[in-house]
Design brief:
Chain A: This is Cytochrome c biogenesis protein CcmG, thiol:disulfide interchange protein DsbE. The complex is a heterodimer of chains A (178) and B (160). By secondary structure, chain A is α/β, with parallel strands linked by helices. Helices cover 40% and strands 19% of the residues of chain A. Chain A has one domain: Glutaredoxin (3-Layer(aba) Sandwich), CATH 3.40.30.10. Chain A has a five-stranded mixed beta sheet with strand order 5-4-3-6-7. Chain A has a two-stranded antiparallel sheet with strand order 1-2. In chain A, helix 4 links the parallel strand 4 and strand 5. Chain B folds into two domains: 92 residues, Cytochrome C biogenesis protein (Helicase, Ruva Protein, domain 3, Orthogonal Bundle); 56 residues, no CATH class. The N and C termini of chain B lie far apart (81 Å). Classes of the chains: A alpha/beta (178), B mainly alpha (160). At the A-B interface, loops of A face helix 3 and helix 4 of B.
């Protein structure tokens, strides 16, 4: 018994070492969304292209990406070609044009091609606030009932899509089929 | 060196006032201004994670300050405002995390360790005090008796 007690400091040391070692590989800037598993917040905002009113009901029906973007966001320019490619592959993408100038947004969509099925003009950032957006680009994965299932912060490039988002999206598509 | 330091401190102090002056809000009362200041100082900016939303000049921090001001004007309580932000940005925005199963260790871990240390220390002290002889020599009661007997004999031996 006494002998075993001598091992106690070693055990404590190992415990702390494992704990700290794990900490080396955690990303402290990773911020889990508070909205996972919750429905899209209700909104009523105009569309970017024609000003037609859109509500959260318009985004329901099939699994989709909801991409928060803006023309002032430099990283969105990098992401845009990837979204174009995904749209071509048949992925449903909705846009939230976050705190942007609508004319500039329209120009961007003409110049760089428009991958969005619908594009919400959130000029004052109210929907962005309800979504817990703190920068752009951010992308939400919603299921066919409009429930937020995943959030990705940052630029979606081919690798991110292939390794992280595509499997999740595919799962939602499979889930939507009866 | 000292002069340089005081210049730096002064510069930092001025920076604070300059930043605080970016938003100009008109408060209905001094109490409301105080509530606003407390709120923006205890809420964390989601974008620049080591700053509160009072100090950060990220666009999102500006929006959140405006939102908090708006909610204060509408007469909402501090709890309502904090709930509003937590439901959107998560517990992350709180510099003072709530006590939940996940944060129990964080909240009570240090106190628990301290208490554990005292219990251990108390145990050791108590054991030492209650049976000093046994601890010191490691002899059983029988052996102690023999030892005492041997010690009592010594003066007799010396006489010889």
């Amino acid at each position: 018994m006494k002998r075993l007690l001598l091992l106690l400091p070693l055990v404590v040391f190992l415990g702390v070492a494992v704990f700290l070692y794990r900490g080396l590989f955690l990303d402290p800037s990773e911020l889990p969304s508070a909205l996972i598993g919750k429905p899209l917040p209700a909104f009523s905002l105009p569309a970017v292209q024609d000003g037609k009113p859109l509500t959260d009901a318009d985004l329901k029906g099939k699994p989709a990406l909801v991409n928060v973007w803006a023309t002032w966001c430099v990283a969105c320019r990098v992401e845009h070609p990837v979204l174009n490619k995904l749209a071509k592959l048949g992925v449903t993408i909705y846009g939230v044009n976050y705190k942007d100038d609508n004319a500039a947004a329209q120009k961007w969509l003409v110049e760089f091609h428009d991958p969005y099925q619908l594009n919400i003009n959130d000029a004052r950032g109210t929907l962005g606030l309800d979504l817990g957006v703190y920068g752009a680009p951010e992308t939400f994965l919603i299921d066919k009932d409009g429930i937020i299932r995943h959030k990705f912060v940052g630029v979606i490039d081919e690798r991110v899509w292939r390794e992280q988002l595509a499997p999740l999206y595919q799962a939602l598509v499979d889930e939507a089929q009866p | 060196m000292k002069r340089l330091l005081s210049a730096a401190v002064l510069g930092l102090a001025l920076l604070g006032t300059a930043q605080a002056a970016i938003d100009t809000y008109e408060f209905a009362s001094e109490a409301e201004r105080e509530r606003y200041r407390n709120l923006v100082e205890e809420l964390r900016c989601p974008k620049c994670q080591n700053q509160n939303i009072a100090d950060s000049d990220a666009p999102i921090a500006m929006d959140l300050r405006a939102q908090i001001f708006r909610m204060l004007e509408e007469g909402q309580s501090n709890e309502q405002i904090i709930d509003f932000l937590v439901s959107r940005y998560g517990d992350f925005v709180l510099y003072k995390p709530p006590v939940t199963a996940r944060t129990l260790l964080l909240w009570y871990g240090p106190a628990g360790l301290l208490a554990g240390g005292f219990v251990l220390l108390g145990g050791i002290l108590l054991r030492r005090r209650s049976k000093p002889g046994v601890i010191a020599s490691g002899l059983s009661a029988d052996e102690q008796q023999r030892l005492a007997a041997l010690l009592n004999q010594t003066p007799v031996d010396k006489k010889d």
